Amino acid sequence: MTATGSSPASCAEPNTKEAPGSDTDIEKFAAAEAHLRNTTVHNISWQGVTVTVKDRETGLPKTLVDNVHGLVKAGEICALMGPSGSGKTTLLNYLASRPTHARSATGSVHLDGAPPPSRAAFRALSCFVEQEDALLGALTVRETLSFSARLSSSTGAGLVGSRGKREVEARIDGLLDAFGLREQADALVGTPLRKGISGGQKRRLGVASQLITSPKVMFLDEPTSGLDSAAGWEVVSFLRGVAKRNNLIVIASIHQPSTSTFNLFDKLLLMSHGKTHYFGPVSAVTPHYESLGHRMPLQVNPAEFLLELVNTDFAVRRESAVQHLDEMQLAWTGSSTAMELTAALAAADGNSSGGIEPDAAGKKPSFLSLVLTLLHRSFVKSYRDVVVYAIRLAMYTGLAIMAGTVWLRLSATQSSIQPFINSIFYGSAFMSFMAVAYTPAYIEDYMQYIKEKRNGLYGATAMMVSNFLVGIPYLFIFALVFSSISYWLTNFQPTAQAFFTWVLWVFLDLLAAESLVVLLSSLFPSFVIALALIAFANGLWMCVNGFMVPPDELNVFYKYVFHYWDYQKYVFENMMVNEFSERVYTCATTVTGCQCMWQTDLADQCLIRGQGILDEYGYQPGYMGKDVGIMMGIVFGYRLVAWIVLKLKE
């Protein structure tokens, strides 16, 4: 079959048309998939899994998963199925060693009959594919797989360096062929402004990007959600083919699959109200319920039939429906299939070889390699996705033209002093305010980080360092472009030293503003919430930076609680010093003589020394080095708190 135009006609058969047809092609195809072959983990089992949360309405304990058992062997693909609220996603998260936000969670998860040596070791052997998989839209399909390989714990930079890029490229080519993405290899995943691959292709790419890390156990959260029946069948069919060929263990929660998709699974765990109602081969589920007096009608989707059977949400007589559900659950507990599961679990524990070695997943890339890979990926995204920096460059250029033409060619006279001050405030404040445009791009990076962190690829430190470094050159370009236009149009102090000092403070302003965006977006990774908080914070900084109210007149609370760590305060102050400390302005002359609005030692010459303006604000030159250090401390502080937030969310 191919990626497009496929049909689920042969619904119960695994995909046999994925590999090329000739013997030579098949050998190449098999070699490309060699890294996927699982010879490490023979089975995964779980016993007595119970997860309890606090009910939001009553405040009482509520059991989401109740004493669930299961066993899946290598080469099998298992479906977790049940009505909404049945506990399948909670169980999947527990099995994958992911957060369940539970009040209490008990039960054992074993690999080959023994518990994993550590959570990190388990995550190195497994992967989790989200329901809405986070993919960077600015990357191509091939680049997505390539970067996943470079970040992978088993196919990272150490492998690239020792065995060469050809092996990694062969792996990528094998996955492109296995998931029918060869023709889309160089197509973009897709951004809000550039159309990319289809929804079904994105799902297959999400699975492939996890397979490139050579997992032995795969967990998938509703991989067919949002897809039509044909696209859903394609995703599961490709997944089944790869799992069968390479002896992988696959466990997927799935919601109301089509008949053809349902028949692709080897095993089924059917849940309702957190309890197991069936676990065993898909082929035996219909006979089991027929033995209970529930014969499946002809030409009915078995998945729909089973879900309706164990769903009490829409029952007319709820009490009798719940009672009947409990009776079916008890019947399952005493069934021969349940007894076979108990025996299989005992046999798996009895055949334990002592567990999986902690280093079974291979060597992890170094921290430097991770940072360089993330930098490379972020750089590709930065120049390809206009939302990241191109739109901001256009915004800052427009702001520079507007500011430069509104305050056009101000003269060195006292009538221009207040316009100079207004221009300094406007430029510095709104440059930082407009950094909010970085929010959607960072949230995309954040979601990618959460996914890759949970799959054990890298941590908060590599994320924060790479994110900080990739922005530095772009922010400097923004500062230089804005300054080159607005500075000379406005006619600030016309010296090279003053100009480059101005550029420095615009750059530090942007650096601090973007760090604030990173912090607040990490705390609240929702565009609307982050946007509101960033706007509020910048509004507060504008009020207390020294322009609206001189520092000596500022309310004591705002002065000592916010003013001294307001980065806009240091930018505004040093831009004022840069303009006024070494410049003089002419006073107004009238028929009665010279009229100076600021009285300085040059009043007898009908001039105003710029330091006189600074004295009104309490500003003095000579503190630039100290203020640069404070600004870097603020930037570092924002990043440090953002790093702590990311660590706490792990």
UniProtKB/TrEMBL annotation:
Q: Where in the cell is it found?
A: Membrane
Entry's PROSITE patterns? ABC_TRANSPORTER_1, ABC_TRANSPORTER_2
Ranges for domain ABC transporter come to 44-298
This protein's record includes keyword DNA repair: no
This protein's GO CC annotations:
membrane
Q: Which residues cross the membrane?
A: 386-408, 420-443, 464-487, 499-520, 527-548, 628-646
Q: Which UniProt keywords apply?
A: ATP-binding, Hydrolase, Membrane, Nucleotide-binding, Transmembrane, Transmembrane helix, Transport
A GO molecular function term, named singly, is: ABC-type transporter activity
Which family does the similarity line name?
A: Belongs to the ABC transporter superfamily. ABCG family. Eye pigment precursor importer (TC 3.A.1.204) subfamily.
UniProt name for this protein: P-loop containing nucleoside triphosphate hydrolase protein
